[in-house]
Amino acid sequence: MPTVYLTKEQERQARTTKILKNGILEQNTDQKALAKKIGMKHGTTNKRFNHPETVTLGELWKILDGLEMPPEERAKILI
Question: What CATH number corresponds to the domain at position 35?
Answer without folding.
Answer: 1.10.260.40
